Amino acid sequence: MFNWFRRGKEDNKNQESSPKPEVEVTQELESTLPTAEVDPELLWSVKVLADQGRKESEMATEELDWLQRLRQGLGKSRRELANQLKGIVGQGPLNQKAIADIETLLLQADVGVEATDYIINKLESQVREKSLPSEEAFDYLKTLLCEILERPLKYNAKKQFAPDQNSLNIWLMTGVNGAGKTTTIGKLASLAKKSGYNSLIVAADTFRAAAVQQIQVWGERSQTPVIANPGQNTDPAAVVFDGIKAAQSKNINLLLVDTAGRLQNKKNLMEELAKIRRIIDKKAPDAKVESLLVLDATLGQNGLRQAQVFAETAQLTGVVLTKLDGTAKGGVAFAVAQQLDLPIRFIGAGEGIEDLRPFSSYEFVEALLS
Ligand SMILES: Nc1nc2c(ncn2[C@@H]2O[C@H](COP(=O)(O)OP(=O)(O)O)[C@@H](O)[C@H]2O)c(=O)[nH]1
Ligand SMILES: [Mg+2]
Fold first, then answer.
1. Which ligand is nearest to the CA of 218?
2. How many Å lie between the centroid of ligand 2 and the Cα of residue 107?
3. Ligand 2 being an ion, which residues bring their Cβ within 5 A of it?
4. Dihedral angle at the C-alpha atoms of 269, 314, 232, 214, nearest 10 degrees?
5. Whose CA, among 104, 286, 309, 360, lies 20 to 30 Å from 301?
6. Atom 10 in ligand 1: which residue has the minimum CA distance?
7. Angle 255-298-359 (CA atoms, 0-180°, nearest 5)?
């Protein structure tokens, strides 16, 4: 079965921001295979999982594949950020000039003013206390970046993000058109199925007939039933109502709700979301509701500005960051955590059904900076 839940030591250590002690597991792998045959990307993936306390025997191929894809996907961001950072930090113990250069670099990488200020202040006070040799400085920087990503979790009850097995979970996907809501629902449905959940998709983006067809295709791909209303421009809240009724009668764990994202008609959109929310609160008062903002990473800070509209009205509980493959704006993840104060729950790095995974700040920072 697919491992949605993160196991072992990471369950306890997940929220600690300091990098985990390194385990010599990679040597184990190296010793079993001739060096020439070991793919460095695979070795990196094994090491990232091992550093989180995972045993090699517990590592699923899917996870190792995903980590490699994540690292490749973040390649552009890494080349922009990591290589230059290493260049600056590698010049010797951190000094004022280096810190100023780091600041410029972080701002260029869409990390955002607030998150950058936080990092720079921390670096400055650390340097005032003691000398920070290159390697130590780089590790400290990684720790700070993890800290930023994990901070929204401190007052956000659920640290491990998976559907509650004992109740109905309703996950609303919100966000502007083109952000990747429908695609994310398809990927989530597939992940849920592999993890043993019973899920149902609700086609509540009823504005365009094509949107309903698109989600039906994802329903077929993920072998997940789709509740939709025939006809165009029907009431999205009514479809959600049908979805809740179906979920309650069919013992469904997870209801994935696709919604419309027309920002041009902001008032209607927000009223629509509010109405969906009222139906849920009334018809499924015991359900665990998550309102996830789907955000296109390629838009960087601009996407964040659009998202403010949803943050104001959609009672958001988390973020799904999509399209991390092939963008140099991976740094926006830090701006999301810092500015929206929301935990990132999943990341998408590709258009395929397998290209979505639960978010791990440690893995993200490693993939971005190693
Ligand atoms: N490269 C890439 N494309 C994505 C990703 N997620 C979604 N897309 C593409 O983005 C486009 C818009 O996605 P869609 O799910 O229709 O967005 P929606 O309007 O928010 O429902 C589609 O062409 C998707 O294939 C991703 O993680 N990576
Ligand atoms: Mg859509």
1. 1
2. 31
3. 181-182
4. 120
5. 360
6. 180
7. 45
CB of 350 closer than 6 angstroms to any ligand 1 atom: yes
Q: How many CB atoms lie within 10 A of CB 139?
A: 15
Dihedral, 100, 103, 108, 111 alpha carbons, nearest 10: 180
Report the residue among 351, 353, 355 best suited for mutation to probe ligand 1: largest number of ligand atoms under 8 A from its CB: 351
pLDDT tens sequence for the chain (370 residues): 344 544 333 444 444 444 444 444 445 554 555 555 678 888 889 999 998 888 988 888 888 988 988 888 888 888 888 889 999 988 888 999 999 999 999 999 899 999 999 999 999 999 999 888 989 999 999 999 999 999 998 765 556 688 988 899 999 999 998 999 999 999 999 999 998 999 999 999 887 778 889 999 999 999 999 999 877 668 899 999 999 999 999 989 999 999 988 776 778 888 888 899 999 999 999 999 999 999 999 999 888 888 888 887 788 999 999 999 888 888 999 999 999 999 999 999 999 999 998 999 999 999 999 8
CA–CA distance, 150 with 159 (Å, rounded to integer) = 9
